[in-house]
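User: Please run a holo structure prediction.
Assistant: Happy to. Please share the sequence and the ligand.
User: Here you go; the ligand is iron/sulfur cluster.
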Amino acid sequence: MTLLTDKPLTKNMRQDGSVVDIRSYEQAGGYQAVRKVLLGGMTPKAVTDAVKDANLRGRGGAGFPTAKKWSFVPLGKDAPNPTYLICNADEMEPGTFKDRLLMERDPHQLIEGMIVSGFAIEADVAYIFLRGEYVQAAERLSRAIAEAYDAHYLGKNILSSDYSLELYLHLSGGRYMCGEETGLLNALEGKRANPRSKPPFPPVVGLFGKPTVVNNVETLCCVPHIITHGGEWFRTLGRTQDAGTKLFGVSGKVKRPGLWELPMGTTIREILEEHAGGMRDGLTFRALLPGGASTDFVTEEHLDTSMDFTAMTKIGSRMGTGTMIVLDDQTCPVGMTWNLMHFFAQESCGWCTPCWSGLGWVERILQSMEEGRGQPGDLDKLASQAKMWGPGATFCALAPGAAEPLQSALKYFREDFERHIREKRCPWR
Ligand SMILES: Cc1cc2nc3c(=O)[nH]c(=O)nc-3n(C[C@H](O)[C@H](O)[C@H](O)COP(=O)(O)O)c2cc1C
Ligand code: SF4
C-alpha cells in the first residue's frame, strides 16, 4: 500500500545518498503502477487520459503537455513498428542537475515510469539516453535495469501480460545538441547530432523513421504516481494552475545551494531565501536565471512570482528546467554573460548562420568588453544579434535559448555594459 505523499519524486531517497534497490522500491509501493496498468485491465488510452487529467507538462524545459505528445503516436495493429520511447537524460543545460538525482538515488522510479509510459504509446523498445559523464547514474541504472529484467518487469510478456518492452541504456557522446530531441535521435542512430527539420515530428517519424516519444527523466518519473493516485491528486500538489511537484535547484553564491522537491508554483523568493538560505554573508542578490542558462534573467522585482510555466512566461522569462543560477553583486554580469555565450558558441552545431556565426561574434564582443577594448556601438550589435536568434530564425532552440540571457542582460545590466566601454576595463577585476 502506498501512502499519499506531497513529495512523490523524492520520498524514497536516502539521506546517505545510497541507491534504492528493487526490494526497497517494491516495499515502498513501487511497481504498483505497472501492476495496475498491465494486470488491472487499463488500456493505453486510459493511461494517456489519466496523464492528461493530471495536466502533466514536460519537465525538460519547454513544458509541452505530455499526454498531448503521446496522443500523436499511431496506435493499433496497423501502426508502424517498432515504436520507441526515449528518456532524455542528457542534462547538459548549465546549472541543471535535477535528473541526475532521480537516476542516481531511485532508478526504479524512472524504469517504472518508462514501462507505464511505454505501454501508453505501445512502445516496443525504450532507451535511456544518458549524459556520458554521469558515471554513477550509469552504474546504478544498469544494475536497476538488470534487477527489473530479473523480476520480469521488463522483457517479453511483462508479468505474464500481453505487453513486452526491451529497455537499453545508451551513453551520450557529450554535446549539448545531443539533448535536443531530434539531435538526440540522430546521435542514437550513430549520426552527427544535428537537429532534424520538423514536421514530421518524432511521435510520427522518429528514431529510424518510426514513431518515437522523447520525454525528460523527471516527466517520466511523475507518471507512476499519477497512475497510482490519480490525476486530481497530482493537480492538487501544485499551488497554481500547473500541476504536481517540481525539483527546484539553486546554484551560485547562496548559503545552501541544492535541490528540493516543492509544489509547482512555489515562489522564487521562497526557494531562494527559505530553501537556499539567501545570499552568503557580505553579498547582495542582483538577478538569477530561473531555469538553466537558456532563460531570461529575472531581478528583485520578480522574486514573488510563482515558479510555474505560466507565471514565469508572464514576467518575460521561462521556468525552463527550474534550476536557478544566482548572480550576486560581486560577480560581473558582463563576464557572466560572456561565459554563457562562450558555452553556447562552443555547442552550436554549425548548421544555421545566425547561430554559428552570431554566437562567435557576440562572444568576441563580450570578451573585448571584459578586456577593456569595448567600443561605442557594441551594445547595438549585441542587441541586433539577440534579435536574429529569435524563435523561428534558426533550425533548433539552441540559438533562441542563447538569446534569452543576452537580451535580458542588456535590459537589466545596461549601465554595467556601458561602464565597461566608458572606463575601458571591467570594474570587477
Ligand atoms: C540545445 C538543447 C538541449 C536540450 N537538452 C535537453 C536535455 O538534456 N534534457 C531534456 O530533457 N531536454 C532537453 N532539451 C529539450 C528536448 O528537445 C525536449 O523538448 C525534451 O526532452 C522533451 O521532454 P519533455 O516533453 O518531457 O519535457 C534540449 C533542447 C535543446 C534545444
Ligand atoms: S540553432 Fe545553432 S545549434 Fe540549432 S541547428 Fe542552428 S546552428 Fe545548430
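Residues 353-370 form the longest helix (18 residues).
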